[in-house]
Amino acid sequence: xxxxxxxxxxxxxxxxxxxxxxxxxxxxxxxxxxxxxxxxxxxxxxxxxxxxxxxxxxxxxxxxxxxxxxxxxx
Length: 74
Fold this sequence. Notes:
Layout: H1 3-13, H2 17-24, H3 28-35, H4 42-51, H5 56-59, H6 61-64
């Protein structure tokens, strides 16, 4: 999903970035940076995904869906 898609989904759910920030104990600007992929916070990402009713791997697939040919996979 693009940052705009995420913002639209939050609006549809009636949830503001400030609501997410309060729930996570971070600033609204931090939430905005996470949505815009300027920084990574697993806690904020998971809270956003839950709020919009999607799996975190569907919202940020490039981060949460790892290739099975990774050197860390046995």
